[in-house]
Design brief:
Distance between the termini of chain A: 45 Å
Radius of gyration of chain A: 21 Å
Oligomer: homodimer
Helix content of chain A: 10-25%
Largest sheet of chain A: 7 strands, mixed
Strand content of chain A: 25-35%
DNA sequence: ACAATAGTGTCTATCAGACAATATCCT
DNA sequence: AGGATATTGTCTGATAGACACTATTGT
């Protein structure tokens, strides 16, 4: 593949070095709560039965993003995402199998795409498993904390920056999504005015429900 | 060192994987300009004669931060820093020697610590070498762009967050440092009022120069 | 006195937070 | 009509930007 040799005649592969992995915190909204993170259950081999973030080792011929996408596809059957780098986790003892450095990634999927069984609701900043599993293995609890901060930071200024909602939505729907992401209630008029100049008018009106029909909006 | 074996009897080291490196963008102020970044000249072997960011491969038994510190010490004789993760650079072809993923780090040193010969001034967002070298090798130009954004972002809100100045300083000195970091002039009264409540009074007064003596301040 | 630098007063425009009024629908 | 929701008016307090004024030193 590559015939480079250093002055001592060795290739890069001749030197001992850490393994490189990716882990993905895929966030979404839980049907009956606020934020939730996708977990997958190791089926065989190392760590079997335990719930953890989907992850995989990075292969020679793929980028980090491709590895993250592969982990999502193989371990959670999720496709078509655009994961982003979050932070590198490199504690010497983070993996008992050996020295593994992991690049944590994060992404967001709309509500309802993932099955409820694989979602762990976020309480505070941490994920809470359903099987009574209090903590995630490796440093995945830390990754989830960073991912939650990341999305909450993004949802304080911009309207639904990662597309939890569909193409068009009412101001009410937008606010409710933001409240569930942030885990706190928002003032409706202040919220409206902050978001209004970041949205385009969809020239449509919601109908069917009781009350004055709501204007619908689109992301810019 | 580690006797883990997977179901097929192999250890982690039996799998092909990328090499892992760190590169460090060490920022400071240039004596006759604004921001500058530390470069080092490769002496022998690969890329000799070219100026680039100090970097090194990560060893099995060290963290990323330790590798970054080692690169600074070996390649630039700089000690005692606390480099921070900036971003991971993982383009498949970023290094002609083979597949190398690099975790870019960034840190800041006070003015006057580094020799002027190893400093490349920043113009706009890019580093400008002195030997007529227009571009840095690998993706180091991109790393510098990210590092410059990082420090400019930090210096827009907080007073000298990375200690370019000493323990105490006048408001004038603080403002001049911020102007050199940001590459733009700042309004003195607005700047003063924004920074004042983030500083402590050093209960000292500057003396010697002409004009009203200035109060001195300390970081919180 | 005068130049030079430090520090403050004040006006304006903008914006978030809060409360309340008005507008327009469904039943 | 009456309930429900959407949308806007308006007051208040905080703050950034801008300009100009006052304060205190060295020469």
């Amino acid at each position: 593949v590559n015939d480079y040799r250093d002055p001592s005649g060795r290739t890069l592969a001749d030197y001992a070095r850490p393994s490189l992995a990716v882990d993905v915190a895929l966030l979404t909204l839980h049907p009956s709560h606020g934020l939730a993170v996708l977990l997958h259950r190791a089926e065989e081999g190392f760590g079997s039965g335990q719930w953890s973030l989907p992850g995989t080792f990075v292969r020679l011929e793929e980028t980090l993003r491709e590895a993250a996408l592969r982990a999502l596809e193989v371990k959670a059957d999720v496709r078509g995402r655009t994961p982003q780098q979050l932070k590198v986790f490199d504690a010497l003892d983070r993996d008992v199998r050996g020295r593994v450095v992991s690049v944590a990634h994060v992404d967001v999927v709309p509500e309802g795409v993932l099955a409820e069984e694989v979602l762990a609701p976020i309480r505070g900043e941490r994920a809470v498993g359903h099987d009574g599993q209090k903590h995630l293995p490796f440093d995945h609890d830390l990754i989830v904390v960073e991912a939650v901060r990341w999305i909450r930071n993004a949802y304080t200024e911009a309207p639904d920056p990662y597309g939890l909602l569909g193409q068009t939505f009412s101001m009410y729907e937008l606010r409710k999504v933001h409240e569930r992401v942030l885990g706190e209630e928002l003032q409706k008029d202040t919220f409206r005015r902050k978001m209004l100049d970041q949205l385009s008018d969809a020239r449509e009106v919601s109908t069917g429900r009781v009350g004055k029909p709501a204007r619908l909006f689109t992301r810019r």
